[in-house]
From TrEMBL:
Keywords: NAD, Oxidoreductase. The active site is at residue 349. It comes from Sphaerosporella brunnea. InterPro entries: Ald_DH/histidinol_DH, Ald_DH_C, Ald_DH_CS_GLU, Ald_DH_N, Aldehyde_DH_dom. GO terms for molecular function: aldehyde dehydrogenase (NAD+) activity. It comes from the Eukaryota. Its EC number is 1.2.1.3. The keyword Cell cycle does not apply. This is aldehyde dehydrogenase (NAD(+)). Belongs to the aldehyde dehydrogenase family. The keyword NAD applies. One of its GO terms (biological process) is polyamine catabolic process.
């Protein structure tokens, strides 16, 4: 592997430090930094000092090259400290579910120790207690995984199997996820705090369905012929790209892995997948199912590790052909720079500040319910969360009053293993502190806090609602990634569209109206990769998911994702032209 230029890596590490390469659909753990420290970091990374620094940078992880200590989920650990871990351990979750948990790196269908023996701790945000430690990959481990993936890509055991056989392997993997649903759902709940009802009924259900969807596509990916005249036959092949580096976020660990693995494997690629350091356990367990399903060695390799080491090595690796990343916009930019070392194909899904527009003729009761889903699901830790609500002036006060009352009764905060709980903790103490800093910022800027902004304890945050906000407020511009929504009024359709588009992001948007013409006109004019009409965050694995502007490049899900994992090869056949 040829090392990338020092400037590229310096920028890359800066981004990984500030917003962690494994964010989340999309955020990492954070640690408060002073304004002067942020400015110093920006100078060291050749970022102009005149650049505005978002509040998120004031809450970035503390890391200095002089120290081998960093703060992670409220605890100090020696960075990449060597521990004599076993490769497997027996775990019992708070809900009584027991299983054998792999702790090693999954390379070439085997769990192995990291070469340097480095580890990372998985800490539950429910109580800030360590669940277990797992081996953490560094650049040497990434090299081994890439070698395994390259060998598998070139081997007849994978390259020469039929497309139907590839599909059968994906069907088998989906069946194994279904068989192990209780364990996998428990893992994601324990590891990142999402209510068990959501991990079981939403995340696992979608993961299984996604794999089956792409299993069905495996033998339907065909080329085409192009008529250019009688003297030549031209046909186009859609061939796999090669070795794919995939980096998944902490907020939907298993589901995001399924979104990425499904199209990559259906099209014949091999994969090196890095889990988020905040929630590595379910993705590691997936490795056992990959092997059990019968995938040849090296086709899927799974690494736990930190963004600044394993993530950086994947992004810059010269023998990786494609990068698929879900995470922060800042880190996405850094990945693009690192990926330019060999002009990798890239798919990047990054941040959002999605608007939700409510016109005066809308069904207000339905708008209230969907708006709640759009921002409060997963404790607001969703990249396409509709966190900016714009309501037509004549129904503004009615909507705010009903939304606040509905949120008070619907968001049930508590132990995510409890059956009736819908709102778990933020993923870490650092993320909690980051969100609470935005609460104070909103108050200072003059927004009207009408609900929440407080905590019942631990890493839990009450749903927070600000009204009477202005577009220039920090809380209206920056992605907060929590149960935090800004509401304001508009008068005309033109104003609503202009304000909806007044963002550097363009991931999702929602429109509520009974006027079909208005709905489609507004949807067409909003600058976003996805628009929901009379719903919010109502996504589906068969429909393309992704954004415009600084919300990403390319699409995941649906048929559109398949194009991201294939190269089109044109073959020209001379049928008689003689020179």
């Amino acid at each position: 592997m040829s090392p990338p230029c020092c400037v590229t890596m310096q920028l890359f590490y800066m981004a990984a430090i500030i917003n962690n390469i494994s964010r989340p659909l999309c955020r990492a753990a954070f640690f408060p930094l002073s304004f002067l420290t942020c400015r110093a970091l920006s100078r060291q990374s050749s970022i102009p000092s005149s650049c505005s620094i978002p509040l998120s940078l004031f809450c970035a992880r503390k890391y200095t090259s002089e120290s081998t200590l960093y703060r992670y989920k409220g605890k100090l650990h020696e960075e990449m400290a060597a521990k004599d871990l076993p490769l497997f351990t027996e775990l019992t979750a708070p809900n009584g579910i027991k299983w054998t948990q792999p702790l090693g790196l999954f390379i070439n269908n085997e769990f192995v120790k990291s070469k340097a023996g480095g580890t990372l701790s998985s800490v539950s945000p429910i109580d800030d207690k360590e669940i277990t430690s797992v081996y953490a990959a560094e650049s040497a481990d990434v090299d081994e995984a890439v070698k395994a993936a390259r060998a598998a890509f070139q081997s007849s055991e994978w390259a020469d199997i039929t497309t139907a056989e590839r599909g059968a392997l994906l069907y088998k993997l989906a069946d194994l996820l279904e068989k192990n649903l209780e364990v996998l759902a428990t893992l994601d709940t324990w590891d990142m705090g999402k209510p068990l009802s959501a991990t079981k009924n939403e995340d696992l259900s979608e993961s299984i369905s996604t794999l089956r969807y792409y299993a069905g596509w495996a033998d339907k990916i065909s080329g085409k012929t192009i008529d250019v005249g009688p003297s030549k036959l031209v046909y186009v092949l859609h061939q796999p790209i090669g070795v794919c580096g995939q980096i998944v976020p902490w907020n939907y660990p298993l589901m995001m892995a399924a979104w990425k693995l499904g199209p990559a494997l259906a099209t014949g690629n091999t994969v090196v997948l890095k889990s988020a350091e905040q929630s590595p356990l379910s993705v590691l367990f997936l490795g056992t199912l990959i092997k059990e399903a019968g995938f040849p060695p090296g086709v899927v390799n799974i690494l736990s590790g930190y963004g600044k080491t394993a993530g950086a090595a994947i992004a810059a690796h010269e023998d990786i052909d494609k990068i698929a990343f879900t995470g922060s916009t800042l880190t996405g930019r850094a990945i693009m720079k690192a990926a330019s070392s060999n002009l990798k194909n890239i798919t990047i899904e990054t941040g959002g500040k999605s608007p939700l527009l409510i016109f005066e003729d809308a069904d207000i009761e339905q708008a209230v319910k969907w708006a709640h889903i759009g921002i409060m699901s997963n404790a607001g830790q969703v990249c396409c969360a509709t966190s900016r609500i714009l309501v037509q002036e004549s129904v503004y006060e009615e909507f705010v009053q009903k939304f606040v009352e509905y949120t008070k009764t619907t968001s049930v905060i508590g132990d995510p293993f409890s059956e009736n709980v819908s709102h778990g903790p933020q993923v870490s103490r650092q993320q909690y502190e980051r969100i609470m800093a935005y609460v104070e910022k909103g108050k200072a800027e003059g927004a009207n806090l009408v609900l929440g902004g407080t905590t019942p304890g631990g890493n839990f945050i009450q749903p927070t609602v600000f009204k009477d906000v202005k577009d220039e407020f920090t809380i209206c511009k920056e992605e907060i990634f929590g149960p935090f929504v800004c509401i304001d009024k508009f008068t005309t359709q033109a104003e609503a569209i202009k304000r909806a588009n007044n963002s550097s992001y363009g991931l999702g948007a929602a429109v509520f109206t009974k006027d079909n013409t208005r709905a489609h006109v507004v949807a067409n004019k909003i600058e976003a990769g996805m628009v929901w009409i009379n719903s919010s965050n109502d996504s589906h694995f068969a429909v393309p998911f992704g954004g415009v502007k600084q919300s990403g490049i390319g699409r995941e899900c649906g048929e559109y994702a398949l194009a991201n994992y294939t190269n089109a090869k044109a073959v020209h056949v001379n049928l008689g032209t003689v020179l």
